[in-house]
Design goal:
The complex is a heterodimer of chains A (578) and B (582). With 578 residues, chain A is of the alpha/beta class. Among the domains of chain A are: 196 residues, Up-down Bundle (ABC transporter transmembrane region fold), CATH 1.20.1560; 142 residues, P-loop containing nucleotide triphosphate hydrolases (Rossmann fold), CATH 3.40.50. Helix content of chain A is 63%, strand content 10%. Chain A contains 21 helices and twelve strands. Chain A is elongated, with a radius of gyration of 36 Å. In chain B, strand 13 and strand 14 form a beta hairpin. Chain B is elongated and about 120 Å long. Classes of the chains: A alpha/beta (578), B alpha/beta (582). The interface between A and B is large, with 165 and 152 residues.
């Protein structure tokens, strides 16, 4: 947790001053019982009405100043904790943006989001508690004991026995019940899992008439959770009765032994009452401390989850600012013996890829799932760095390009059609803020999206929901293709991005890309033989290796893997059809 | 807060009324004893007058009684908590079980039409809210009210004047707390909204990282993020500050009450007016003043909780009140040894009355025939499946199996006649074996393996780390999409139904698995009437009947040759699909 303390630097003042004000309030709170004692001993005993009024006035004054200091502290705590959270969030977000896909894959998107939100909120809360309570609560607990000692040392022995006992009870119950909360959460997760399965599998469950057994499965999980909840409940229900019993017995001891002290003249009646007050103050403060411990345990887990992100360095560094000179008369894209593995040296996703693509060529890449097609195209914009070998663009290693120069010339359409919330236009302008109306219109036309966009009442200003949920799969894909075309990329990569299109639209799309994008090097990944069979060159991947390169006709002659794919998808006469 | 909701909720707690009575009685005993404590302490303190003037002998019975009160009060406090827990969690369990049972009885129309996340949250979160808020909240409310009343009674017996002072000042803390709660609630809503906006933004950007990177959007997204982040800071500081006010403020009010009691108590003791008061009684009063104000602070918090709980209870009850699937007709049959002849006669159906879908559909499928359903994505192929298996009922017209109207057959029996393998495979978290034997009861290991072999799944299952005992994880990440489909095929093979509904995969399956699935399908279709949502030309060509669907209705039907001759939609589709643009 200390590592994150540097983000509190800006709020040093608040972190130091806040607790001081809180301390003032606590001190005043500790003085009150003494004043009450004085009021009784000096006022009531001697019948001095004026004294009672004076003491009452002082108590009120203490209350008001205490309130003011508390308010100041709360204000400082809010500023520091929210400020801290804001800084950490901003830094963390910036840091995540430097990650390559390897790092993002490793954490997983949901996990990164939880870290950005819940974990940082937890830390923020911890900072607020740090300022508000970390000094105050232990100070009150210890302070009450010290005050008791000052009033009458021998009688304060009661405190020295009672407080460790209370602490022990708190410790035992907390350490036993807190881990159960995680267990409870897991059991609740099981319940939602079964519910989710029951909903998503509703057709299968009913098809097999398994409602009864699913209900039994659900009830078993629910029973299990109930049993645990009751067990934890029994345990944590002990906390209050036990601590209050100890405290009350301490009060009995105070009254009994205090009686002896008063009898011998060492103490006054008022002081005995003060003692009783201190006892209840101690107990309350100790319960707060125990809760604080729980809070900080939780936040230290959050802190380590956040730190894990901060400690991760991008495996694909950006040589920003470097200048590169393309070598003339070289292939546009060249793979030289490229291998890559996501994890571990023996599990290659692609292996010994060796090929070159000339400017303006259209290249099809085909192969089954897991054959490495997406991996191949993800290596070009350096979403991952190759494990061995070299990738050259215009004769220069991709590692030498600044990201802006490398990715700036690539138009990429990923497998998953992702749109961002905003409007169609804001999505088209995602890469090029200043794209003109003509450019956007042209891109939409090539992507076969112009028609349906124009048909919408608001046209390009039509709203896009998060993830583009208000568009059909085919519409989304066409919009992502249009987005990639805005800004006229030199290299266009289509990663199986026409899978949701019906065949007619797919064909029209291919035709218009061919017609409108002369000079652009196009890489087309697909599972459909019909999509790529007209490409200038087809690369066939099988299990991460190249099984063949050539035109459709050449491959039909020479490449068995390609034949298999074609035969499984096209009828025999279509395969041979020119 | 609706009385009906409350009443209904108490019906769920009824089986545990013993515990409820236990909780209430324990609460009464616990509170009265707790309140009696300060009186005893006060009496004891009155025996401590000054040097050489302490009545220890008189204190003994008081202190012994005090000790007894403390112990008994503690025991009942625990019993109270225990009973509340029992009621709470058992009611939760019952509510959940009922909600889940309800899901199984709801018509598909409801389940398809509602976000699953929302239904899950009713079964999981809302039930928890109800438990926390209503049951525990109500107990807290009860103890709070009893404490306040009890304290009042005890205080009145000691000094009516000071009681009046306490009663007059305390509502101040309620007022202050309420005022603060109102302000901070507004701030909280704004903070919540901004927090939601930020989470949404982060989620969108991180899950779209590939795009962000390709389009070099990083710096722009940081700008946008920081803008939201700054707004979150602004309202966050306010929300936190205002909400943190309530604690010191109520503490201050309590302090004022305490001071007032101490001062006025002392004055009474000195002057004997308006009534005489001993020092011990002042001590008791101070304790009561504290006890009296505390529930007020708690009750404010509890009321918000109870309000949320009522909202949750309403959401839950709305789910429980949904109309269920129409029950099987009285005297519905269970067909045995079905041939698998299917007749669809003049069927009309639509999901929504205003959008007509299937109109006058007719179809005749005899035993062993293959019916291919083709059409562009989203053309409504699943609608046919929905109707055949009675996930939805036709608006009019009849569907017959072996000449019997499906409405006169029990749903369980009808559905068992169909074997269904959909592209969206469904496996539940459990072992491979459990998943294969899902639809069948009491099958032997040999039968399971035989089914897996027939589905060409045996060899890959054996390669899994634990073979048939391998656990399939929630997202099924450990086996591929194609393998999942093979397992679903094995599952159907084991049941051996007379009619099949198959959905050919469009993508995401590697060639070899694809070939295996094809083979398994062919094997399975032998002698069975099959409906195939087809994407593959070979399947379509070999079908006995092709149904061409577009925009939810069957627009053409016939064999491949017949349809090509027709030069209609099918011919067009066929040409664009397999003839490549030149």
């Amino acid at each position: 947790m200390l590592k994150l303390a540097k983000y509190l630097k800006k709020y040093r003042k608040q972190v130091i001053v806040g607790p001081i004000f809180k301390l003032i309030e606590a001190i005043f709170e500790l003085i009150v019982p003494i004043i009450t004692a004085k009021m009784i001993d000096n006022g009531v005993r001697t019948g001095n009405v004026g004294y009672v009024w004076r003491m009452g006035g002082i108590m009120l004054l203490l209350g008001v100043t205490g309130l003011c200091s508390a308010l100041i502290c709360q204000k400082l705590a809010s500023i520091a904790s929210q400020g801290f959270g804001t800084v950490v969030r901003s830094e963390l977000y910036k840091h995540i943006n430097t990650f390559s896909h390897s790092e993002i894959d490793r954490f997983g998107t949901p996990s990164l989001i939880t870290r950005m939100t819940n974990d940082i909120n937890q830390l923020q809360y911890a900072v607020a508690m740090l300022i508000r309570l970390v000094i105050r609560a232990p100070f009150l607990a210890v302070g009450a004991i010290i005050m008791a000692m000052l009033v009458d040392f021998p009688l304060s022995v009661v405190f020295l026995i009672a407080t460790p006992l209370i602490a022990l009870v708190l410790y035992i119950i907390m350490t036993r019940s807190v881990p159960f909360f995680r267990v409870m959460q897991n059991k609740l997760d099981t319940i939602s899992l079964i519910t989710r399965e029951g909903l998503s599998g509703v057709r299968v469950i009913r098809a097999f008439s398994k409602q009864k057994s699913e209900e039994e499965r659900f009830n078993a999980a629910a029973d299990d959770q109930t049993a645990t909840a009751i067990r934890v409940g029994k345990l944590s229900a002990l906390l209050n009765p036990l601590t209050y019993t100890i405290m009350n017995f301490a009060v009995i001891a105070i009254v009994w032994f205090g009686g002896w002290r008063v009898d011998s003249g060492a103490m006054t009646q008022g002081e005995v009452i003060a003692f009783v007050n201190y006892m209840s103050q101690t107990l309350l403060a100790m319960i707060v401390v125990a809760n604080l411990v729980v809070t900080f345990t939780k936040s230290s887990a959050s802190a380590s989850r956040v730190n894990e992100v901060f400690d991760t360095v991008s495996s694909v560094p950006d040589p920003a600012g470097a200048s590169v000179a393309p070598v003339p008369d070289t292939p546009k894209i060249q793979f030289e013996n490229v291998s890559f593995s996501y994890d571990g040296p023996d599990k290659y996703a692609v292996k010994n890829l060796d090929f070159s693509i000339m400017p303006g060529e259209t290249v099809g890449i085909i192969g089954g799932t897991g054959s490495g097609k997406s991996t191949l195209v993800n290596l070009i914009p350096r979403f991952y760095d190759v494990s061995s070998g070299e990738i050259l663009i215009d004769g220069v290693n991709v590692r030498e390009y600044p990201f802006s120069a490398l990715r700036g010339q690539i138009g990429m359409v990923p497998q998953e059609a992702v749109l961002f919330s905003g409007t169609i236009e804001s999505n088209l302008r995602f890469g090029y803020r200043d794209a003109t109306q003509e450019e956007m219109e042209k891109a939409l036309k090539i992507a076969q999206a112009y028609e349906f966009v124009s048909a919408m009442p608001q046209g390009r200003q039509s709203p896009v929901n998060q993830g583009g949920k208000n568009f059909s799969g085919g519409q989304k894909q066409r919009l992502t293709i249009a987005r990639a075309l805005v800004g006229s990329p030199r290299i266009l990569i289509l990663d199986d991005s026409a899978s949701a299109l019906d065949f007619a639209t797919d064909a029209a799309l291919r035709k218009s890309i061919q017609r409108e994008t002369s000079g652009i090097t196009v890489l087309m990944v697909s599972q459909r033989a019909s999509t790529i069979r007209r490409a200038d060159k087809i690369i066939v991947l099988d299990d991460g290796e190249i099984a063949g390169i050539g035109t459709h006709e050449q491959l039909m002659e020479s490449c068995q893997v390609y034949q298999e794919i074609c035969l499984s998808q096209l009828s025999r006469d279509e395969v041979s059809k020119k | 807060m609706k009385v009906s909701t409350l009443k209904r909720l108490f019906r769920y707690a009824k089986p545990y009324s013993g515990f409820l009575a236990g909780a209430l009685i324990s609460a009464l005993i616990h509170i009265s004893l707790t309140l009696y404590g300060p009186i005893l302490i006060g009496q004891a303190v009155d025996h401590i007058i000054g040097p050489s003037n302490v009545g220890h002998r008189d204190m003994i019975p008081i202190l012994v009684m005090l000790a007894g009160t403390i112990v008994i009060s503690a025991v009942f406090q625990w019993v109270m908590a225990y009973c509340t827990n029992k009621i709470t969690y058992h009611t939760v369990r019952d509510l959940r079980a009922q909600a889940y049972q309800k899901i199984n009885r709801l018509p598909l129309r409801y389940i398809d039409g509602h976000a699953h996340g929302d239904i899950i949250s009713r079964v999981v979160n809302d039930v928890d809210q109800v438990a926390d808020g209503l049951l525990q909240g109500l107990t807290q409310l009860f103890t709070g009210v009893v404490t306040i009343l009890g304290t009042l009674v005890f205080m009145l017996t000691i000094s009516p004047v000071i009681t009046v002072v306490v009663v007059l000042v305390t509502p101040l803390s309620l007022f202050v707390a309420g005022f603060i709660a109102r302000i901070s609630h507004r701030q909280f809503i704004e903070q919540q909204a901004t927090q939601g906006e930020l989470s949404g933004y982060v989620e969108e950007m991180i899950s779209g990282q590939k795009i962000v990177k390709t389009f070099l959007y990083e710096s722009r997204s940081e700008e946008e993020f920081n803008e939201i982040n700054q707004r979150l800071y602004n309202c966050g500081v306010k929300a936190q500050f205002y909400s943190s006010l309530s604690n010191p403020s109520t503490r201050f009010v309590n302090g004022v009450v305490y001071t007032a009691v101490a001062a006025i108590g002392s004055l009474c003791a000195i002057t004997g007016r308006p009534g005489p008061l001993t020092i011990g009684q002042i001590t008791s009063f101070l304790a009561y003043a504290n006890q009296y104000t505390k529930p007020f602070n708690e009750v404010t918090a509890v009321i918000t909780q109870i309000q949320t709980a009522f909202a949750s209870a309403d959401r839950l009850f709305r789910l429980l009140d949904e109309e269920e699937e129409t029950p099987d007709a009285p005297g519905a049959l269970a067909l045995t040894d079905s041939e698998g002849n299917v007749d669809v006669e003049h069927v009309y159906f639509s999901y929504r009355p205003e959008a007509k879908l299937i109109q006058d559909m007719n179809l005749r499928a005899r035993k062993g025939e293959r019916i291919a359903i083709v059409g562009p994505t989203g053309c409504g192929k699943t609608t046919i499946i929905n109707l055949l298996m009675r996930f939805y009922d036709a608006d009019s017209g009849t569907i017959k199996i072996d000449g019997t109207d499906v409405k006169n057959v029990t749903r369980d029996n009808l559905r068992k006649m169909f074997g269904m393998v959909l592209q969206e495979t469904w496996l539940f978290s459990g072992t491979v074996r459990d998943n294969i034997s899902y639809g069948s009861e009491q099958v032997t290991e040999e039968q399971i393996i035989a089914a897996a072999k027939a589905a060409h799944a045996h060899s890959f299952i054996m390669r899994l780390p634990n073979g048939y005992d391998t656990l399939i994880s929630e997202d099924g990440g450990n086996i591929s999409q194609g393998q999942r489909q093979l397992l679903c095929i094995a599952r159907v093979m084991l049941v051996d139904p007379p009619i099949l509904i198959l959905d050919e995969a469009t993508s995401s399956i590697d060639t070899r698995t694809e070939i295996r699935i094809q083979k398994a399908f062919t094997e399975m279709m032998k002698g069975r009437t099959s409906f195939i949502v087809a994407h593959r030309l070979s399947t379509i060509k070999e079908a006995d009947l092709i149904l061409v669907m577009n925009k939810g209705s069957i627009i053409e039907q016939g064999t491949h040759e017949q349809l090509l001759q027709k030069q209609g939609f099918y011919a067009n589709l066929y040409n664009s699909q397999f003839a490549v643009a030149d």
